[in-house]
Amino acid sequence: MSHTPVLLQETLTGLNLRAGQTIVDCTFGGGGHAAAIAGQVRQVFAFDQDHHVSNYAADILAANPNIKLIPANFSQLAKYIAAPVDGFVFDLGVSSFQLDLPERGFSWRQDCPLDMRMDTRQTLTAEKIVNQYAEKELADLIYNYGEEKHSRRIAKNILAARQKKPLTTSGQLKAIILRGVSGSYLARNAALARVFQALRIAVNDELNILAGALTSAAGLLKSGGRLAVISFHSLEDRSVKNVFKDLQKKGIFTILTKKPLRPGAAELQNNPRARSAKLRLGEKR
Q1: CA angle, 138 as apex, 136 and 143 as ends, to 5°?
Q2: 283 φ, ψ to 5°?
Q3: Tell me, which fold does domain 8-91+206-284 have in CATH?
Q4: What is the model's pTM?
Q5: Considering the domain 103-204 in this protein, what is its CATH number?
Q6: Where are the CATH 1.10.150.170 domain residues in the chain?
Q7: Range(s) for CATH 3.40.50.150 in the chain?
Q8: In 44, 134, 164, 259, which residue has its Cα 20 to 30 A from 31's Cα atom?
Q9: Taking the C-alpha atoms of 177, 144, 6 and 12 in order, what is their torsion angle to the nearest 10 degrees?
Q10: CA dihedral 248, 232, 204, 44 (to 10 degrees)
């Protein structure tokens, strides 16, 4: 398995890195951003709630002793970061390692358990959601977190299927979703991606946690410190945009990217998973 950090050079430039700085990587994942940052600063604190991450990125951690891995969700920033720091980076979404491991259940492209937990120690899974939520609750979840227009039909089909037998695999769920949508191959795949995205967001409570963590990070920045956030879908980007606007309105923050930065053609060719990435940058006043 390999991990390619998205918008790496744009992130490094945007953070305005200098020797002696302390930077916090709130989503360590495969460690690509943290390793590149660690080579230019004094200290990197790296958060990740996935307790398997030290195995995925053992080589990076061994090669960069100035990276301190903190096994916690970035919602707990204030618990672990006491003094003001020079920068924060959030690379949101699912890491390549998580996507590529069938047992984690994030991808509809492989038949795997319906799990989708970033932190496998928590109890809520995608399997519990599709088998226990009421039809309206499921439909609202798919529509609100996946922006899928066939949400009601898909939810109805899920309930009909689970009355015959519990849904336990992504293959079962994929077949149900495809029965509820029509159109081209690309359109049907897009619907699959939206429903799986919705379930992942719900399992990990991603959007509710994000806004609070960004606000907390801004409060922990030194004057002149930078905040870099890479998002991968419109709901994330909208949340980031709104938090940035609110912080600027309060007079404590300056937005540095009027429009988010996007990957160039060369990056997209080398890493197709970067196609939906957007980078927003801000600075503490």
Answers
A1: 95
A2: -130, 135
A3: Rossmann fold (3.40.50)
A4: 0.89
A5: 1.10.150.170
A6: 103-204
A7: 8-91+206-284
A8: 259
A9: -170
A10: -70
